[in-house]
Amino acid sequence: MSAVPQAAAERPEPRAVRAAAPYANPYLAGIGLGLVLLAAFVVMGRGLGASGAVSSFVAWALSRVAPAHANGNEFFAEYLQSGLGHPLKDWLVFEVLGVLAGGFISGALAGRLARMVEKGPRISVAGRLALAFAGGALMGIGAKLARGCTSGQALTGGALLNAGSWAFMMMVFAGAYAVAGLVRRQWR
Amino acid sequence: MNAPFYKFGAFGDEASLVVAFVIGVGFGFFLERAGFGSARKLTAQFYLDDLAVFKVMFTAIVTAMLGVFYLAWLGILDLSLVSLVPTNLWPQIVGGLLLGFGFVVGGYCPGTSLVAAATGRWDGLVFVLGVMAGILGFGEAFPLVKGFYESGDLGRLTLPQVLHLPYGLVVFLVVVVAVAGFAGAGWVERRFAPRPAGGRS
Q1: CB B65 within 8 A of CB B171
Q2: Nearest-CA distance B186 → chain A (Å)
């Protein structure tokens, strides 16, 4: 924990001075993100993703523990049969490894690498981690029902004017605004 | 030049994994640049004093949408070869709602939680574990939810088809709505900006 840069420390004061570089202009970051998405369409003929790679990983991990059970389940079997001869030798899995690397590189360049917990001042670390897990689980279920998450549906389908993706995107915002008041203590 | 390059056999499956990694690096890089490795930055969208999520998402969508439109119009990109997830309306609506709940409860979405974990955020890592648990649970329950999962099947469906409008016109309308949204976002941020303690403006 001693290797954490100055920016790492949680500062309760609202106007704490950040040692880390400020975030990029949202419109410039959006154009960058859009060009990466366009590159995926032009080079590969497909968009971006995130939850699909996690599904491949979960299916593979389950097949290591309970092979017969995993292969006998229609949902997991589909992920186990995809990939180039191995469920993890998969396009989205490699893309997600790139996401981890790209996020790390940007964070390192901006001095934003920090072992910390993102939370508001009025919630404990344990409470925040419990909600992070619960929120992740909701997202995992939702992303599978919707056949994609914010990457695969909202961004990718949004840019392709996919009707289902636009319906999905509206519901994501509606759902988040509907419960934002209930979890305000976590953030503010 | 014919695009998508991969679909026209410009390179093989093994090379496509290298492409995947490189594209992923770009994706993760710009997510982190935008501040999306921070749950507080992301969830500020839902407390209205920082609408970066809306701005970044819609700028990215408009940029890629215009690129796709013009490259297809110039005959460079064959849009019919770009994969489009079929619409299953009901599970997408319910899934979207669950994702929205998860976003503000957990602080991330699957892609941004990976960036958060990569930059050291413990909550990002725990969120990823939660996503794994959710997917495991969904998979185990799949025989029960399969009927709903396959309901509302409308096939490959785009907004121009739904609205009975030309593709180019829908592209133009999305740009107009986005630009209006960006102007509105600035107004909302000023309206909901936290006031400095002790001072009233």
Answers
A1: yes
A2: 12
Contact call for residues A136 and B60 (beta carbons, < 8 A): no
Determine the number of helices (DSSP H) and then strands (DSSP E) in chain B.
9, 2
- Kindly tell me if the per-residue pLDDT of B6 is higher than 80: yes
Interface contact flag, B27 A99, Cβ < 8 Å? yes
Are the beta carbons of B35 and B107 closer than 8 angstroms?
A: no
Task: Give the angle B7-B8-B11 at the CA atoms, nearest 5°.
Answer: 85
- Subunit contact B132:A57, Cβ cutoff 8 A: yes
Please indicate if any CB of chain A lies within 8 Å of the CB of B96: yes
Q: Which pairs from B164-168 meet CB under 8 Å and 24+ separation?
A: B167/A161, B167/B69, B168/B69, B168/B73
Q: pLDDT per residue over B70-99, tens digit each?
A: 999 999 999 999 999 999 999 999 999 999
A177 and B46 within 8 Å at the Cβ level: the answer is: yes
- Backbone angles phi and psi of A88, in degrees to 5: -95, -10
